[in-house]
Sequence to fold (281 residues):
Amino acid sequence: MPPVENHVATSRLRTGKEYRELHTWIDDADPKIKTERHDITRIFVFGRRFEKQYGQEGLNEYLQHLHDDIAAKFEHLQHDVEKMTGDILAYFGVKKGSALNYTVQQGDIDIMKNAGLTDADLAHCLNVAKKAIEIAQRTGVRLDLELVGRGAFFHDLGKARSHEIDHGKIGAELGIAFGLPKALTDIMEKHIRGGMSEAEAKDLNLPVKNYTLSSLEEKIIIYADRLVDIITDGVVQIESEREAEDRFEEFIRNVPKYYKNQVTYERYLGYHREIQELMKG
Fold:
């Protein structure tokens, strides 16, 4: 289950308060006491206690704590089942990442909605996930489609708080607080400018680190994000999604919104050419 610090972080994001005493009481160091305090048959008793002490908001945080723990338990169960299934398939020569498709799960959609993402931003994320999966399938390369789909879907989580250049950083922080895997939070942080260098991050007043993309899955997500912008923004006139790919170089060269600067232009151009070459092969 999520550690106390994760619960504290999510309370801070939701309410501006940590409710550390509440979360520490529930997650007592004594396993027996901790189990008793997670007993859902005692929600009424414990709930009244927290409502009296903290008000309605405290009661909500208590219930949310239990909800997050239950979700984490089932996520671990799902992981165990998937690992067992993967081990069995691997025994017969079917490797991880060889699945033919991936669909965004309702649980992930709920996370985005609960974080406060607008309907327009949510639609964008769904479109990017769909396009990224499509591109990954067309490359003919054995890829982790779950990483492609989830990474593409969650890339703009930070827009629940900001639409500025810091939304990648904020998204990663939210993702960590929600207990999302590091592979996903890395994508949220890296997608700004398509994988910045330390020097670029410094110029943009972002945490100084190397944001370079490290996998084909990440490059496909970045490429899909830019393609969806071209397809849906209405900045350029196209008759089909295929035209967005065919004229990609023209669009990013001539539309400042898409190329930002010379360094970013060359980066996107490189992803486009690499991925298109794989799809042709």
